[in-house]
Amino acid sequence: MKSKILFILSLTVLLSGTANAATTSFFTGSEVATLVASGATSDTISSNGYLFTYTRDKLFTGGVSTAEPGRYVRVPWPDGVEAQAVTVGPVSKPQITISRVDGNVFDITAFTAKLLASSGGAGGAFEVVPLINGEDKYKDPVAFNATGYTNQIFSYGSPSTSLLTGADAYKFSLYVDFALTGLTLVDASTTPVPVPAALWLFGTGLIGLAGVIRKRKTT
């Protein structure tokens, strides 16, 4: 009887657990990236199950006709991922969009960003837009202070990132060039494993029965 009780209790504990969420950290220096798409003003790479789409000023020549088009990349992978303001072609501010290859939802629990130009005069904020099926999850972007000077670094974690949850894509933007140099992502698609009510009742009954047996043996 004792061995059966222990078996049921062990099974109950195993089934009542929650599937472990997969945590992925980027820009530790060991991540390999694969280019999956290249456009006139952006590129998309894949790494560890995630996609990064970032803007690049590829057609910029600085007004010199013989110059090699495109601006110099200051933060190459795997040190980070750099976003550049697009000044030639369809003009746009620097942006980085992160999503999963499988399209599942995920959370951003922490990130570190580096300014590649000064925002100290006018002030600035990293704007992060969580997306679900291409639609904004919130009415307004989630803002993080980015007022500083070139090469200044900003790091954010919990509870500041508490709104960066349950989306299938996140779009980062700023009005000056920047790079993400640290990133912690958590797969939010895992769900708790339900335990049938009958199993709990059965396990509870066995515990009670064991108590009765022990009591009889001692009397």
TrEMBL record:
Residues 192-215 form the Ice-binding protein C-terminal domain. It comes from the Bacteria. It holds the Pfam family PEP-CTERM. InterPro entries: Ice-binding_C (IPR013424), VPLPA-CTERM (IPR022472). Residues 1-21 form the signal peptide. The keyword Methyltransferase does not apply. The keyword Ion transport does not apply. Keywords: Membrane, Signal, Transmembrane, Transmembrane helix. The chain crosses the membrane at residues 193-213. This is Ice-binding protein C-terminal domain-containing protein. It comes from Sulfuricella denitrificans (strain DSM 22764 / NBRC 105220 / skB26).
